[in-house]
Every structure is written in structure tokens, then in C-alpha cells.
Design a protein that fits this description.
Strand content: 35-45%
Largest sheet: 5 strands, antiparallel
Helix content: under 10%
Number of helices: 0
Number of domains: 1
Distance between the termini: 28 Å
Number of strands: 7
Length: 97
């Protein structure tokens, strides 16, 4: 799996993921702005993980029951379909703003 966001590959074993929690807050205002202060973009492998910004404010956190690796997941709703997206959680990329 790549280090940045990607659509969940059809071969990815989603049944091996266990929900740990959510980064969503029901009381938080809707924020669709992304945080990329150093020229990254959504698909960048080194894009910061800024919890209060999109898409992280819409993510759930999962753990693989086989290898203990952590993942972020959210659904991108566009037009006629839902694109389930996943990104390995790299704690070094978490920023506090």
C-alpha cells in the first residue's frame, strides 16, 4: 500500500480491519479546506495529517488485526458513486494546528 491516500484496492482485505475510533466530531463546523503549507496535495505521500482539516475531519481510524498497522479511511462522495479511500497512518506526519 502506498503511503498517501488511494482508493481502496479491490484486493485489499477490508475484513481484516478493526475500527478503533473516529476523528469526526459531530459538534465541529463543516470544514472542507485542506492543509498543505509546503506545496503537497491530497495524494502526496508526505502530505500532513491535519486532524481539523479535510479529509481527516471525516476519517475513521482502523487497525489491521493481522499486522497491527493503523489506517485512516473515509468515503469520498462524488456524483454517482462513493469512493472509499484509505491511507496508512504515519504518526510522524500528524501536525497540530
Amino acid at each position: 500500500m502506498r503511503p498517501g491516500w488511494e482508493s481502496v484496492p479491490g484486493s485489499f482485505p477490508l475484513k481484516s480491519l478493526r475500527l478503533l475510533g473516529t476523528l469526526r466530531s459531530e459538534d465541529a463546523p463543516e470544514i472542507w479546506e485542506e492543509y498543505h503549507p509546503h506545496g503537497t496535495h491530497s495524494w502526496s505521500p508526505d502530505a500532513p495529517i491535519a486532524i481539523g482539516f479535510y479529509p481527516y475531519n471525516r476519517c475513521d481510524v482502523y487497525e489491521c488485526i493481522d499486522c497491527s498497522r493503523k489506517y485512516l479511511r473515509y468515503g469520498e462522495y462524488g456524483g454517482y458513486y462513493i469512493d472509499e479511500r484509505i491511507r496508512p497512518l504515519n504518526f510522524k506526519l500528524i501536525v497540530q494546528i
